[in-house]
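re: the backbone from monday

yeah here it is again, tokenized this time
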């Protein structure tokens, strides 16, 4: 009964034991598959409120992904105004880059990120030499890079 997630579907019997309440479950079924968005701005249409929530979610998701890359920007603590502004600008730039890539290629960001993740630089070391080369580029990834106007990197990136 203390669970915020499940207590709304429970009631107590005569002995005080929790049990599923069919009426509460039936009432909750009306919202299955729907998102409920609330706002205190009465001037927004329901579509605008939903789009605002979606945009905020996309920006936060982009920043979450940025924090899990090799950029080593974790942890993020902002107390000064210029850092807060920089954080918002970085999130906005990430969203703009993501959206521009989606528009140019006609693919979803999830698909683009999956394809781009296959492109890596691999370092081979022996006692005498170090060779850095890229992984093989599949045809779909090559098409994506062309649509994005990104040059395909050379096979051998460095030999020393």
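seq for it, each position gets an aa:
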């Amino acid at each position: 009964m203390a669970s915020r997630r499940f207590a709304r579907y429970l009631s107590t019997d005569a002995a005080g034991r929790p049990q599923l309440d069919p009426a509460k479950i039936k009432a909750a079924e009306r919202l299955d598959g729907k998102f409920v968005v609330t706002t205190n701005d009465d001037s927004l249409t329901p579509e605008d409120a939903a789009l605002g929530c979606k945009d905020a979610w996309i920006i936060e998701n982009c920043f979450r992904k940025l924090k899990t890359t090799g950029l080593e920007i974790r942890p993020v603590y902002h107390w000064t105004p210029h850092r807060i502004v920089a954080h918002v600008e970085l999130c906005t730039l990430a969203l703009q880059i993501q959206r521009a890539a989606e528009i140019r290629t006609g693919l979803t960001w999830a698909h683009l990120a999956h394809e781009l993740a296959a492109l890596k630089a691999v370092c081979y070391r022996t006692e005498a030499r170090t060779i850095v080369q890229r992984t093989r580029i599949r045809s779909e990834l090559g098409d994506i890079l062309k649509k994005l106007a990104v040059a395909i990197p050379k096979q051998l990136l460095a030999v020393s």
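The chain has three domains: 1-34, 46-108, 118-159. The chain has a mean pLDDT of 85.
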